[in-house]
Amino acid sequence: MMNKKSIGDSLLTVLAMSALLMALSGCDSQQGPAEKAGEKIDNAAEQAGEKIEEAGEAIQDTVQDDKK
User: Fold this and answer.
1) In this structure, are residues 31 and 39 in contact, taking their beta carbons and an 8 Å threshold?
2) pLDDT (0 to 100) of residue 1
3) Mean pLDDT of the chain
């Protein structure tokens, strides 16, 4: 059975987490120009990485075919 102190601590924790969630939900979600540019750079880098990986796999396939 929980004593009064642990119930109070649990209640305080729940209240603190609720306040944090409410504060975070109030944050502005609109992106500025720098954030949009950064997102575009991230996407471009990810696509480039995928293309490099595909090229590496194609090279490996070619080398394996040549060994046969």
Assistant:
1) yes
2) 47
3) 83
Instruction: List the domain range (segments joined by +) for residue 23.
Output: 4-67
pLDDT in tens, 57-67: 898 888 888 77
3-state secondary structure of 13: helix
Q: 2 CB contacts (<8 Å, ≥6 apart)? A: 10
Query: Residue 45 CA to chain centroid, in angstroms?
Result: 16
Distance CA 48, CA 25 (A): 34
Residues contacting residue 31 through CB under 8 Å, at least 6 positions apart: 39
Distance CA 43, CA 37 (A): 10
User: The pTM is what?
Assistant: 0.49
Q: How many domains does the chain have?
A: 1
